[in-house]
Amino acid sequence: MESFKSEAPKLSAEEKLNLLVEFGTRVSSELRLDKLLDIIAQQITKMLDVGRCTIYLKDVEKNELWSKIAQGRGLEHTEIRVPLNGNGIISIVARTGETINLPNAYEDPRFCMDVDMVTDFRTHTMLAVPLKNNSGKVLGVFQVANKSDATPFDKKDEGILLLLATLAASAIEIAKLYQDVHVAQLETIYRLAVTAEYRDQQDTRAHLKNISIISYLLALALGMSKKEADLIKNASPLHDIGKVALADNILLKPGKLTPEEFEIMKSHTVYGGRILEGAHSKILQIAHKMSLYHHEKWNGLGYPKGLKGEEIPVEARIVTVADVFDALCVFRVYKKAWKTDDAYTYIVGESGKAFDPRIVAAFKKIYPSIRKLYSPAASYATKEDMETSSASDAQAAKNYPQQQNASESL
Ligand code: C2E
Ligand code: SIN
Ligand code: SIN
Ligand code: FE
């Protein structure tokens, strides 16, 4: 992450101290890594009164250091990558943990001009310090260039930059941790959802992915924010989590369920509700509403509670449209796959009956994108076969969950 200065204010000692306090406050309140790196680079540019500040972070897996270009020739947000074992300044500082201070960068053979070239910037003086955490581990490198008074960086500058690096390091570590936890949370949710679905689905991953995408597009088409739509996207794979509680003889029954069996089937909503009851995270709270209420109908004739209209949480009203559309389009042990356009006609016909008319209107808007998802060339590779499925496919489908069981346990 790098920052260029736009104006060059001269700062008093007191102003610098204020900046230091501001730096500490701002970096400790930002948990998004990208934003945090932006803030740090901007603050350092201001505090050290330099032309540019670039933050490189270690990518341990790839054995590289990376940064993002902040300005220059339309390359904003492009990543710069440097090998960790290279011979450039950044690599050396990252490897040795030592500070490098160049009064004239272009005269030093270790200085690599690539970044200057792509950003249309001329580095004169340059200072690079390691970004170390509390236990001394190097997380990356801070690099600043061109003091506004054109003098070389001195010992005091080195001290200030090292101090800021220490402050920044802990904030960066926390943000990375948070990001990892968030990614782990999404992965766990997804794997949990796969567990619930894989017994009765031909293609669990495509099914979950498509329901996710449809729910996300519906949320956006309804005017929800990207953030809300993301939560809905990430929660939707869990809507049928309650199916884990159903016995095979019901869930996998090849034919029609008896009324008694269907009563038992309905309980997957209640089980899902119980599994996710009292969840702490936003995603799981939404998943809770989805799993409990995704079989409620707009007209009040759904289950488990027979809620009506807006009594049904909007997240559940959204996922139900995605769920039914997808269920119709694919093969199930108890039904053939419908043609995509027939499924569309069914959804539209249920406006005001099973589904919220506003959501059906949104569905109509996004249908061209959805239709592409279900084209034979897309994720459902075997969809064409399913559409022409015969009685023998029912037998094949019956064997499917067992086969998958076997391969999953390998
Ligand atoms: P599912 O297979 O994921 O289907 C979800 C919902 O999609 C169904 O909820 C229903 O609203 C809609 N849907 C699926 N297939 C059809 C269809 O061929 N025609 C119409 N009009 N709608 C369809 P529903 O009915 O509450 O069922 C919930 C779950 O119960 C289903 O999830 C499935 O796992 C199971 N199920 C329902 N009917 C049968 C059945 O006759 N045999 C078996 N083995 N399972 C069934
Ligand atoms: C390097 O010397 O490794 C990179 C120099 C730069 O980023 O300007
Ligand atoms: C989110 O993923 O945005 C929310 C996560 C949480 O609430 O724990
Ligand atoms: Fe369901």
Describe it for me?
- The chain is of the alpha+beta class and 410 residues long.
- The protein has 2 domains: 2-173, Beta-Lactamase (2-Layer Sandwich), CATH 3.30.450; 182-405, Hypothetical protein af1432 (Orthogonal Bundle), CATH 1.10.3210.10.
- The chain has helices at 13-28, 33-47, 89-96, 114-119, 155-197, 204-221, 226-235, 248-251, 259-276, 282-293, 314-329, 340-349, 357-373, 383-387, 391-408; strands spanning 2-4, 50-59, 64-68, 79-83, 100-102, 126-132, 138-147.
- Strands 1, 2, 3, 4, 5, 6 and 7 form a 7-stranded antiparallel sheet that branches.
- A hairpin with a 5-residue loop joins β6 and β7.
- α1 packs parallel to α5 and α10 crosses α11.
- The longest helix is centred in the middle third of the chain and has 43 residues, at 155-197.
- The site of one succinic acid has 12 residues, from α3 and α4.
Brief descriptors of the model:
410 residues, alpha+beta, Beta-Lactamase, Hypothetical protein af1432, 2 domains, seven-stranded antiparallel beta sheet, 15 helices, 53% helix, disordered C terminus, binds ligand C2E, binds succinic acid, binds fe (iii) ion
What is this structure's SSE topology?
Layout: E1 2-4, H1 13-28, H2 33-47, E2 50-59, E3 64-68, E4 79-83, H3 89-96, E5 100-102, H4 114-119, E6 126-132, E7 138-147, H5 155-197, H6 204-221, H7 226-235, H8 248-251, H9 259-276, H10 282-293, H11 314-329, H12 340-349, H13 357-373, H14 383-387, H15 391-408
Antiparallel strand pairs: 1-2, 2-3, 2-7, 3-4, 5-6, 6-7
The protein binds ligand C2E, succinic acid (2 copies) and fe (iii) ion.
